Amino acid sequence: MAQISVQNLTFYYEGSFDHIFENVSFSIDTNWKLGFVGRNGKGKTTFLHLLTGDLAYQGSITAPAGFSLFPYELTEAQMQQTAAEWIEELRPGCESWRVICELSALHEDAELLYRPFHRLSPGEQTKVMLAVLFSGDDTFLLIDEPTNHLDEQARESVRQYLASKKGFILVSHDRDLLDACTDHMLVLNRRTIEVQSGNFTSWWENKQKKDRFAAAENEKHRKEIRKLRQAARRTAEWAEKSERSKIGFDPVKEHDRCISTRSFIGTKTKKMQSRVRQMEQRIGREIEEQEGLMQDIETTAALRLTRLTHYKDKLLEVRDYSLQYESAEEPLFSGLTFTLRQGERIALHGANGCGKSTLLHQILQCAGAEVHHLPLTASGTLALAPNLTVSYIPQRTDHLRGNIPEFCEAQGLELSRFCALLRRLDFEREQFGKNLPELSEGQKKKLLIAASLLTPAHLYIWDEPLNYIDVFSRMQIENLLKEQQPTLLFVEHDVRFREHAATGIITL
Predict the structure, then answer these.
(1) What is the pLDDT of residues 231-249, one digit of tens each?
(2) What count of Cα atoms within 13 Å lies in the side-chain half-sphere of residue 274?
(3) Which residue in 57, 109, 275, 345 has a CA-CA distance of 20 to 30 Å to 153?
């Protein structure tokens, strides 16, 4: 049983004001199934690249073997080739028969290796890369968010597959995946890093208990400090008043005093001043004990959106609706019928490629939004309420350019309100000055979510809004939807989010 040891790890990006890691030390076992969680932008992907040696750092990382990182970065030429042609380049010594065995465990056929890689679905591409990753024994495996953009069936295959493996670090924000596939958790807290036995749910329950205890201890110390300061202030006032009475007295009113009384008053004043110093020392000890109690507490600020009320209750009606690409022999779907009323949150559910995003584009086009025109043939009824305002979150983020002020200007958003909302989504202030392509994928998604929440709308249309979004922000958005109850039509493969947020599910 070998160990990977991290000692005094310090790393920061050139030009950055803050360290990503500072004097971090911990050890992990090479046969653990380690889940890795933390807020967006805290350094999860950066840490994986530190392990692989792609980035220079201070401190030491010692391991009994090398590291292999998923997903592999493929060149444009490799995307055009079959996987069988570049397996050896990505995984030296890897044999095709082992990859085929791993694909079988993922419920896929060997023929995936012999089709041009760019023609595979996102789920098929993920499975091929995972099969290649696990087709060797010489490295510790680093898996970075394997289920983004995958439908529920593909996620279930990956979940079952990873549950049967060990010896990896899994970065994911999918709570079901972490619960099913991990036996230890590595957590990037706000100020510290911790390693804990158990899966995500057991870690989260323990964290909530620790946070409640820390908050109670913090409040106890605050009350004690307040009492001590009040007592110290009263004693100091008495000492000062006593000291002032030491010189000068009225012999008529204070007939029992004489010159020798001064020494008695001076001694009394010294005792009171000594008590003040003792109280100040106790205050200092209380403050020391209080420090650090709240540093890792995860608090999520309440979010709000501007929900418009339409004079019609029925905002969207779809009846016997079908969509088909002009070049395809079969329709994407047919006979689709449902109604969306105000306050309802409907989740579109189905396999990759069944037409969920295409349907959302058709609705946006019907609402007058500028979307990429697809060569489609539609039949049936798709009717929106008149004068409907729609707020949309696209699935992809690769269209983002410029910086935050330019983004706000293009979207017609007030910069100060937009930045305040980003802060509520735990967006670090240091990130506000960056160009948008420099942000992490999770931070880009938070930009799109904030823009949608700030846009007054009758209907919100979200296409996989939670890809790359951290667990804490997912819970925050769940609470928002349950409390504000906007009218929402969305696509999301996170099973737990759908269960908590949706009032109904339409399966294509």
Answers:
(1) 777 777 777 776 666 555 5
(2) 6
(3) 345
